[in-house]
Design a protein that fits this description.
The structure holds 2 protein chains of 2 kinds. By secondary structure, chain A is mainly beta. Chain A is built from no helices and 13 strands. In chain A, a hairpin with a 3-residue loop joins β7 and β8. The chains are: A mainly beta, B mainly beta.
Amino acid sequence: DIVMTQSPDSLAVSLGERATINCKSSQSIFYSSNNKNYLAWYQQKPGQPPKVLIYWASTRESGVPDRFSGSGSGTDFTLTISSLQAEDVAVYYCQQYYDTAPTFGQGTEVEIK
Amino acid sequence: QMQLVESGGGLVKPGGSLRLSCAASGFTFSDYYMSWIRQAPGKGPEWVSYISNSDSRTYYADSVKGRFTISRDNAKNSLYLQMNSLRAEDTAVYYCAACGGDPPYIWFDPWGQGTLVTVSS
């Protein structure tokens, strides 16, 4: 299975500041045949199921604020929240779908400093 | 609006069985691959199984292969997970989710609210 490793495990950011979460896959999750990275990002707030924010590494889901952006390719990816809002307090997960056994990262908890 | 509602969770003894159900509404169920994902307390999500939309091809995580069976009834807009030979490590909230992406290479959207399965003597 492809192992997804996120860093850091938690971070505290001031309101209005940038938050950056990293995700590394144990092998490349880029398909050269279609030029796509098979990576999604999720947000999970307390007591709620995860919600997809980004797929194909950088495509925002409809309705997701544009302060959320995804970048990276191959094995290294980043989720950036450009200006942290109070409602962004949550745990964030990356997930690869490069093979038929999808796997998630361990999660990064984002809180307000 | 796509909606998924799970049911069937509860407390079961090790070695026991349980059947989870997921009722779908607000979308054409038969157009979507569907999946079960679980999340143990304080842990990240773990994909369990998914099933294709029309020919019911199935995929399982190694941790549940041979013990769990996923199925669907497109006429009833319903997804199921039969869980046998349950172990303590199967304790988790079980979520039903529709699958996006390029099946069988999928992400999960949306998710239901989940149903708690507790395996304990």
